Structures are given as C-alpha cells and as structure tokens.
Amino acid sequence: MSTPHTAPVTDSRLAPWASCPRRSRGRRLPEAADPGRNDFQRDRDRIVHSTAFRRLVYKTQVFLNHEGDLFRTRLTHSLEVAQIGRSIARALQLHEDLVEAISLAHDLGHTPFGHAGQDALNEALRAHEPDGQGFEHNLQSLRVVDELEEQYPGFSGLNLCFETREGILKHCSRANALRLDAAEPGGVGRRFLDQTRPSLEAQLCNVADEIAYNAHDIDDGLRSGLLELSALCELPLFGRYHAEVSQAYPGLHGRRLVFEVNRRLLSTQIHDVLAATRAALAEAHITSADAVRCAPVLVCFSAGMAVEVQTMKRFLREHLYRHPQVMETTGLARQVIHTLFQAYLEQPGWLPEPLRARPRSTRVVADYLAGMTDRFALREHQRITGLRLFE
Ligand code: MG
User: What is the whole-number distance in angstroms between the Cα of residue 35 and the centre of ligand 1?
Assistant: First the structure.
C-alpha cells in the first residue's frame, strides 16, 4: 500500500533563489528551534492562532458582512490569496510555508469597513497630529504581529521571522520607513529607504493578492447585482473567456457560467505569472535569494497581461467600488469611524477598562478602532450615539 506524500518542504525542493528558514535573518527575540516545524511553518501557525486572524471573518472586503453570507470577507480573501500564492510558489519552487504565512497575515491590520474605514482613520489621526504617522494598513498589520497580539508570556506580538515581517510590510511611506528604521536599524523599514526588493515569496504574495481580489470582486459584484454580466463581457480578458465557455457549453448560465469563466481567468493569470517570472529570473541572471533584492521586481505579469489586469481594475473601480450603493455604505462607515475616534479621545470612559488606564493617546484609540470588526464598530456606534445604522 502506498503512503501519501507528506514530506515537508526540504531545501532540495527549493530553487536557489527561494527563501530558506535555515538562512533566515531570525526573530527579534531569539527562540529555540521547533523539533517538528521549520520557522516559516511556525510563523504560519502563530498567525492562524492569533486573535487578529479570527477577527478577519467579520471584516469587510467590499460588501459589509451583514449584506449577505456569501460575499468575501477579509478571512476568505486571505485564504484565497494563500491558495493562489502556494500554487505559484510550488511551481516556482519557492517556499510555500513563507508564502502562506505572509498571505494569511497580509490583511491583519485592516480596519473595519475596508478602505473607507482606513481612509477615515487616517484622516482622523492626521487631523490630530499632522506630523504623525497617520494610518497605513500595511504598517498596522506589522504592528499587530510585532506588538498588539497578547498571547505569549515572554513577549508582545508574535515574534515572527524577519522574512514574514518583511512580506507583511508590503508598502510603507518614506516618513514611516524612517521611523521604523530608527527603531530597528537595518530592519524591515530599510528596503523602502534603499529602494531594494523583498524576497520572491513576498513579491509573490502581492501578485496573488491582486489576482484574488480581481477575481472575487467580479464574482461578488455579479452576485450582488451591482455588476452586469454584459458590461463585464466588454472587458477583453473576461469577454474572451465568457465567449470560450459559452461556445464550449452552449446554454450554460448563472452561477456555473460565472464560476467557469472566473476559473479560467484565474488559471490564465497564474500561468502568465509563472512564465513571466521564469523569464524575468533568467533575464536578470538570478542565482541566489540575495541577488533578488537588488534586481527589479521579478514576480510579475507579462506586459500584455499587466495591461489587461489594469483595465480590469479600472473597470472594478468605476463600476463596483464607486457604485452609488457601495459609496453610500462607505459614507456611513466613515461616519462611524470618525464618531468613535472622537468619542474615545474626548471621553475615555467609553473605552474598555484596560485601555482607560493607559495614557490617553491617539495611537491607543487608533489601535483599538483598527482591531474592531464591522459589527462590533456598529454596536459601539449605537451604544455611544443611540443611532442604528445599516438596518
Ligand atoms: Mg489583500
């Protein structure tokens, strides 16, 4: 009887330019190695067991959680990013565990109510401290894993490996990179000052994120009725696969048709990234993981696919993210964030007991607000104002 193949990722299965736990730059606080798991697996496990990860289930992607049970949330989005990321990582012989860890953690710092919540919190912070760091969700994701999680007896945060933290900090303004680099010289903020690249695994997670949200926002947009199939068919990429599927399965309609078109769309983007990345690695003569850092971005779409993906993103921005119905919801969401921020700052009595004891600061309020799920923020808004929104 054959046994299933369950061997862990070993160095021999990795490309020379892949990240490797044995060559990791390590954790901020050194820890003894785990006997059964490599350090990237261990990071992934810490992320899955974190409080911030469980909160993702009630955080908005595009549609608020109460609008329907089948729309994506930050949690299902993160799982889809991890799935796409791991598929590509395995084919490119990159480190799957690192890709999974970064994918599952990449949105941990998102506020309630998606981008509307983030913009509102950024505005509120900047109004109080024009020279402060404001709010950036990537930076907040790093704060969650570095400082805000409270699980371990010996340290705050999850004490993750450098490579996982680097991948989580996808973007960072120069001002905030300078702050990070002052606190951790040569650490994860450095590359934004040196203009160098992160690992291939981190680059891959950015592309997997983009592939995932374009595909599922199309799916959710159609499910919600805010996007019209006929309008989507005018997009070259979508239209091509819609025509192909309609020809292969005449009479196919509804959910199965949409799923099949989206499935082909995902596959074609993944195969495109595989081919374009292999070509970029060869062209840049990459021979090691270190060489990746001084090269241009290597995990990428082909030039042709990049244009099609941009067109798709523009379409989604115009037709879905700026749809009047979505805009109305995001307008109310901004109101909730602004009201809560003001209330907690002016009357700390509204804050939970442990936070009241801390010195009053906009950062304490911002961390508390950013950690909220959509429905908790709505409940808090109702408790403070007596108003019931979205009902
Ligand atoms: Mg994302």
Answer: 32
Dist. CA 180–CA 167, nearest whole Å: 15
CA distances from 79 to 37, 85, 99, 201 (A): 21, 10, 12, 16
Record the pTM.
0.94
Going from the Cα of 170 to the center of ligand 1, the distance in angstroms, rounded, reads 10
Long-range (24+ apart) CB contacts under 8 A made by 129-138 are 129/362, 132/362, 133/175, 133/176, 133/179, 135/111, 135/366, 135/370, 136/171, 136/172, 136/173, 136/176, 137/107, 137/109, 137/110, 137/111, 138/109, 138/168, 138/169, 138/170, 138/171, 138/172
pLDDT tens, N- to C-terminus, the chain (391 residues): 344 444 444 566 899 999 999 999 999 999 999 999 999 999 999 999 999 999 999 988 776 656 677 788 999 999 999 999 999 999 999 999 999 999 999 999 999 998 889 999 999 999 998 888 899 999 999 999 999 999 999 999 999 999 999 999 999 999 999 999 999 999 999 999 999 999 999 999 999 999 999 999 999 999 889 999 999 999 999 999 999 999 999 999 999 999 999 999 999 999 999 999 999 999 999 999 999 999 999 999 999 999 999 999 999 999 998 898 888 888 888 999 999 999 999 998 999 998 888 877 899 999 999 999 999 999 999 999 998 887 6
Compute, in angstroms, the gap from residue 106 CA to the centroid of ligand 1: 6
Q: What is the distance in A from the centroid of ligand 1 to the CA of 63?
A: 14
What are residue 161's DSSP bridge partners?
27
The 10 Å CB-count burial string (b at 16+, else e) for 138-152 is bbbbbbbbbebbeee
CA of 358 to the centre of ligand 1 (A): 32
* CA 162–ligand 1 middle distance (angstroms): 20
Task: Look at the block and give the residue holding tokens 């299965």.
Answer: 13
Q: How many whole angstroms from 121 Cα to the centroid of ligand 1?
A: 18
Distance 159 CA to ligand 1 centre (A): 22
Distance 213 CA to ligand 1 centre (A): 7
